[in-house]
Design brief:
- The protein has 616 residues and is of the alpha+beta class.
- The chain folds into two domains: 262 residues, Beta-galactosidase, Chain A, domain 5, CATH 2.70.98.90; 193 residues, no CATH class.
- It has 17 helices and 23 strands.
- About 7% of the residues have low confidence.
């Protein structure tokens, strides 16, 4: 073979190799487009899909319309259906009943906005609990790539008057499906996530999926401080009767729970959004922070939760959950039998028990017959005062006995002026009380027994949904402060307004103290207590009540007025100090066995005297 033949064969080989390389390159570039066409054809074969969206030839991105080849090359996803879904347009679907209106978006197949019917915001506008672009619910599925539901436009697969189903196809036979159902007369949006055919994509060692929920809770009430003080994140453990929260009256808070959590509630003062996992979350990290009062979007707080949802490998995996969007009305929450009613801050075990089983029961009973809640509060206050009137009477009688014994106590104090005689002075004082049958704590104990009811009222009124936007006299909303004067400046702890109910409560406290000032015993310590009772307490209550629920201030005003009437009646018709003193003297003259406390006091005094003799 000559030199020219060899050169010819070499050139032919080079040409063949170059042709094969070029042909292979063309095939590789066209393969993604062919896969996309095959996947689209497979999806269309499924039936019931939004074919208009699937047949759209152009892929839309944030920068505009690109060619199919350029979109495939720039997308982080491998499958053509995920590429198309990641660049799909947003579409909205509405589900509504007589309670709520839910607008769903196909971007992430999640609620976009929620309106509560039958209620208005403080400015009389539509009550929107979830505003558009203020919430994000995202499920993360890890295959050989991260698939986060909020990054894709799901296809609306099916729809009826009360339900809608979205699907995201990962390939021709694998998809993630969201089904939402809103039943009549319910604040609960039922949902079910189905992973079909995803077991061939999800690694076998995966036992949980990540779920994140971020939401900005809006301001819905008039008083920012009051609304803030009763807003937080609440959560419940499975099989636990009580609930826990991230704390009240904090600017921000965070908690990491490493055990199962049944549901998480983003609680505003009178409305809540609650996410329920029917099979419980494996764990949860929750946090919130409050927006400043001057926030231009009128957001109250941002709530964030990161949860893990248990995952068991299978050809079709179902993850049921539900979402409550509605009022923090005790009986409404209780009707769902999930412990929702525990988010209403009614107090601890004793205070909460009084509120749940006594106050709310009476309040609801009266509400069946009386529509004016100002009248209901008046009747409730009278009933409470009648129930505790025996304690009030006993407390006043005990104070009267202590008062008539004051001259005898002064004689004992004068008899033992020295400090070293303090034990003997106390001994004789106790002997006097024992002979006359007077208890030093007789006036305190009845008052202490009334405190649980007072605290129960303090917790009930600011959190009582029944009072929301209920007017009475000059107050247009008994659940928040009433303002008769708006100040051009803000006073620390007081605010930029003047509440008339709070002012009247403070004035009534002053006159009640003035009414009882002459009944107090004299002395240096009593002088300080008189000043505090007469001046400090009314001012303190004015500052405290100026930003609180006007219904609460109204209740304490009524309580003071009724107590003043009770005091006058007891003094006028039941208390005769001369007769009381005569009875005490008669009892003191009757021989009486010493109590064990008196015996111990005598023994202590004797031991003290023996020590003094030894020292001398």
């Amino acid at each position: 073979m000559n030199k020219n033949s060899i050169l010819g064969f070499v050139l032919i080989g080079v040409i063949l190799i170059a042709f094969s390389w070029y042909n292979s390159k063309l095939i590789n570039e066209s393969k993604p487009l062919q896969q996309q066409a095959d996947s689209i054809a497979a999806v269309q074969a499924q039936g019931g899909t939004d074919t208009a969206a699937i047949n759209n030839d152009s892929l839309i991105t944030g920068a505009g319309s690109l060619s199919a080849s350029a979109a495939v090359q720039s997308s982080p996803y491998k499958d053509s259906l995920l590429i198309k879904a990641s660049m799909g347009a947003e579409e909205f679907t509405t589900l509504e009943n007589d309670k709520i209106r839910v607008e769903l978006t196909n971007l992430g197949a999640q609620p976009s906005s929620v309106s509560i019917r039958d209620f208005k915001a403080a400015d009389s506008t539509e009550l929107v609990l979830m505003k558009k672009k203020s919430s994000n619910l995202s499920l993360a599925v890890y295959t050989n790539e991260e698939i986060r539901s909020d990054r894709f436009a799901f296809t609306r697969f099916a729809q009826s008057d009360s339900s809608v189903t979205y699907r995201l196809y990962v390939d021709s036979s694998s998809y993630i499906q969201y089904e939402y159902i809103l039943r009549p007369g319910s604040y609960m949006l039922a949902a079910n996530v189905t992973l079909s055919g995803m077991d061939k994509h999800i690694p076998r060692n995966v036992t949980s999926l990540d779920l994140s929920w971020v939401m900005d809770m809006p301001r819905l009430e008039k008083g920012y401080d009051n609304e803030k003080n009763y807003s937080t994140i609440v959560y419940k453990f499975p099989n636990d009767k009580n609930v826990d929260d991230l704390g009240l009256r904090k600017d921000d808070s965070e908690e990491d729970i490493r055990t199962k959590v049944e549901w998480i509630a983003y609680q505003q003062q009178f409305f809540s959004a609650i996410l329920v996992a029917e099979n419980s979350f494996a764990n949860a990290n929750m946090k919130y922070r409050f927006y400043p009062e001057t926030d231009p979007d009128r957001n109250l707080m941002r709530c964030e939760s990161m949860m893990q949802v248990p995952y068991i490998e299978g050809a079709e995996v179902s993850i049921p959950f539900s979402m409550y969007f509605g009022p923090n009305h005790f009986k409404t929450l209780k009707s769902y039998d999930k412990g929702f009613e525990k988010i209403v801050p009614l107090g601890g075990w004793l205070i909460g028990w009084i509120n749940r089983y006594i106050i709310i029961t009476v309040f609801d009973f009266l509400g069946r017959f009386i529509s004016n809640y100002g009248i209901i509060i008046l009747i409730l206050t009278i009933l409470i005062k009648l129930v505790i009137s025996p304690l009030t009477f006993k407390s006043y009688m005990s104070s009267a006995k202590m008062r008539v014994l004051k001259p005898e106590i002064d004689k004992i104090n004068a008899k033992y002026p020295k400090t070293e005689d303090a034990m003997k002075k106390q001994q004789e004082t106790m002997a006097l009380y024992s002979k006359t049958g007077v208890s030093m704590f007789g006036g305190c104990l009845p008052m202490l027994l009334q405190f649980p009811i007072l605290f129960a009222m303090f917790r009930f009124f600011p959190s009582s949904f029944e009072l929301r936007q209920e007017s009475f006299l000059w107050a247009d909303d008994l659940s928040t402060y009433d303002s008769i004067l708006n100040l051009p400046f803000t006073i620390p702890l007081f605010g930029d307004h003047l509440s008339l109910f709070a002012l009247l409560m403070a004035v009534s406290t002053y006159f009640y103290s003035r009414m009882n000032i002459d009944q107090m015993t004299s002395g240096p310590q009593m002088a300080g207590m008189k000043v505090m009772s007469l001046y400090f307490m009314p001012i303190f209550l004015l500052f405290l009540g100026n930003n609180f629920s006007s219904g609460l201030s109204y209740y304490y005003l009524l309580s003071n007025l009724i107590t003043m009437v009770q005091t006058w009646v007891i003094r006028r018709f039941f208390v005769d100090e001369e007769k009381i003193y005569a009875k005490l003297k008669e009892r003191a003259a009757t021989p009486k066995k010493k109590s064990k406390f008196q015996e111990r006091l005598d023994a202590a005094y004797k031991a003290q005297q023996d020590q003094l003799k030894k020292r001398k």
